[in-house]
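Q: Is it fine to ask for two folds in a single conversation?
A: Yes, each is treated on its own. Send the first.
Q: Here.
A: Result:
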Amino acid sequence: MELRSLYFIHDPRVKGVLHDLRYMWHNVYDYNHTNFYYSILRVFFAGPVTTDIKTIQIRGIILNMLLYVLSFIVFFKLLLLYYKDDILAIFTTLFCFSLMVGGISDTLFIRPYSLQMLMVLLLAYWITKMVNSMVLGVWKYNIKVFLITSVLLAGVLLTGYFMVILVAVLGLFLYWWIYKYNYFKGGWAFYACSLLFALAICWMCYQSYFLGFAGDQRITNKVLGSGSIMRLFDSILTWALLVMHNTLYIPVLLLLAVIAIKYRGYKIPYIFYPALVYTFVVMLLAPYKTNRYMVAASPLLLLVIPAAVNCLRNTGWKRIAASLIVVVYMVMPMFESNIDNLYKKTPVLSLLQDKSGQIHVIHDVRWKIGVLLPSMADDVVYDISDVMVPENIKSGDVVFTTDSLDLKAERVNHGLDYQYKGKCNYYHVYKVR
């Protein structure tokens, strides 16, 4: 309980919320993330004492569910811009969005990606409205458009630093569209200034925003380190597998391919293409092989589904195609292995409650203990240190140690007999015999 009160929110009062928001406005001390989502999350935790892990999980997931509902509404509005005369195509796609396993896993993950998805969909909706007006020749540049564009860009950029890639890709496509529809004169400066103002908003909302661009060693090593060519091919394969596992499943892709080959008029919404490019590029740079880096743009990849359903003119075939797609999206979430972030306790974590001896937690960086806190017992005293002291370790003890500490050397030098029990996040776990 004492540890959780130090690491978790321990002042649920409004005064405590305002205090934390003020400090997060200056710095969240994690340069991979901004304060946007975590400020909302902090407000959402006002009220109850939040050292109980179940309370934290439930409240965090409820917040993400609310963000998901808002994303659903915006996605519905986006579909209306493209397919307002095809209700079957719209509701088929909405159903797929509702049961997309990548979206479900993302909603269960108490991190900024649900908010990121909402902001990306809002920006996609706004860009679609702009381009549609350009096609009709009725688009006008004014202060209202400038402010809306800047605020939405800032909202997207504040949800994560990889969103810079999405904004860059969308910007290139947008410049092509304004050139194509004869809005380039004056338009290039208008959108460039919108981006600059958006960055200013980011700084006003988060004083340490630009520190996040200092670089990430993991990305640098991946791109420039030894074996980068093989990692490049591995990233491409990872991208394809993640898309097929989390967003567009193989049976659906095969059906869409058949429709595209057989029927003419298969026109995919233009906002799909920058989303596709973004998901590809971001996986080339992402430090981990996980869907969370591209899940924000995943709903836009689903736009190939209404495009296929819409081009079918035979009502019977259209209903059959829609039904087959819906069935696939119904089945995929039924398999537990397809859903991430289920908060299931692994057997190795049960050793944190082993009372047969002392439990030692040895780490190189103190924040890593956060992954163990949810499984720590209130009635157990833990020996927590950043230094290995073999003299304090006895038979029956349990040792959690981070990767950077060489426990094998300690075994040889001090005659300790460790039984390896497995790995848990950053920690290797041993039982001393």
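Q: Second one now.
A: Result:
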Amino acid sequence: MNRASQNEGESLCREILANARTEAERLIRKARDDAGRLLATTTAEEEATRKQNLEKANREACHHKERILATLPVESQRLEATRMEALLQSIHDEVQRRLRAGEGFDPGETLMASAAYAINRMSGNTFIVTVAPADHVALGSAIAGEISRRTKNPDLQITVAENPTLQTGDIMIRDGEGRQEWDNRLTVRLERMWPALRLRLAEKGGPG
């Protein structure tokens, strides 16, 4: 091989190498560009998904909030009704306790008034009035006369008897023939009157 041919071969090799490097650099740039586009596309998709999830979460939160707000009046009414019921029951229990203990009232006066009220609503003139032993001892023979005076019926014939199961202030009345009976024990009267009292208290929102 002469000198000219050798030079020509070296020149061709350099050209081939240069073309190879150029092609390699082009391929590298293309790969980088493709990778960049892929990364950008992935990031955009992820951002879109994140935004959709955020919007969905916000919608669900708003819906949940609306449901809660919608139930607040009902829940508030339920809680108020529960509170009122507990308050009324506590009033009932306290009144019942005081009646049984004879607190806050005159048992004798209560007994007389209760008996007169009942007899005025019963027929006949002969009655048996049953009281607690303590009241019988405390009031004695005055029971019959005072009841008769309060009924404004001088023809009444009242017999007073004792019942050890009764508490002070309690009274039970029946006519001489046993056809009529009026149970005016204090706790029984409370139970009879309680529905109306409970309604009045509830309408006023409690005991004041």
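Q: Anything structural to flag on that second result?
A: Two points. The chain is about 70% helix and 10% strand. Residues 102 and 113 are 16 Å apart (CA to CA).
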